[in-house]
Amino acid sequence: MTVTDSIAKTLDARNLSCPLPIVKTALAIKELASGQLIEVLATDPGSTKDFAAWATTTGHALVESSVDGKVFRYVLRKK
Amino acid sequence: MTATLTRPELPTALVEGLDDPVVEGSVKPKELVIVAESGDLERTWATTILASTAAAGEMKVSIFFTFWGLFALVRPEVRITGTNWMQKMLAMMNRPGIDHAKLSKLNFVGMGPWMMKKLAKQYGVAEPRELLEMAQALGVRLIPCQMSMDMMGISADQLIDGVEPAVGAAAALELMTNADASLFI
Lengths: 79, 185
Known about the structure:
The structure holds two protein chains of two kinds. Chain A is of the alpha+beta class. Chain A is built from two helices and four strands. Chain A has one domain: Translation Initiation Factor IF3, CATH 3.30.110. In chain A, a hairpin with a 2-residue loop joins strand 3 (61-68) and strand 4 (71-77). The longest helix of chain A is centred in the middle third of the chain and has 12 residues, at 47-58. Chains A and B meet through helix 1 and helix 2 of A and helix 2 and helix 5 of B.
């Protein structure tokens, strides 16, 4: 399933290495209101586990974790 | 015969908060303290990566900068720190500022760090300065060591914005003993 509706913000974290995708997402999600969605694009293969772990730690909901070719897409709902 | 039973005195820290309402879903955030003792590039990198990632994971993070680690907090435009010739000599031989950190091994008069930073750029790895700025934006506390500042003749106005007032070893130890994890880097 691809979540497309009501994405409040997109963060392009492609070609960035650990820990930048997570750190930049943490900074970006601060700007959102509770319940809003953020989409993150990344190419770091380690990011799949990182985003799952980060969502568990912080309590933001990871509503999508998918991959298209070499690009990973994460959609998170701010807690 | 009567015995008087008195309620034992509880330390205030224990009594306080006993009647506080429990907020649903609230958990005490984990706390990380890093003692940044080294000014070496690779260690400064490790410190800033861990601090920014921990803060991104909503941990409370404090970094205590001491000895050579303190040089990472010196403003980029400050070339020489110190008031006497020895302090100035030290700053001349070891330029302060996070962008001027040297590698502990394979420094080769700056060739090593230059190559490392070139590779970092190529592979999308943020430099320590960038990571430190993001860490600050995520609420990481930067705390300089008073003794190191005195000994190396560094004044508070020579440090980057957002740095907290300098503290001593006892205050740093208090932070560490209350934290869930402390690292000496």
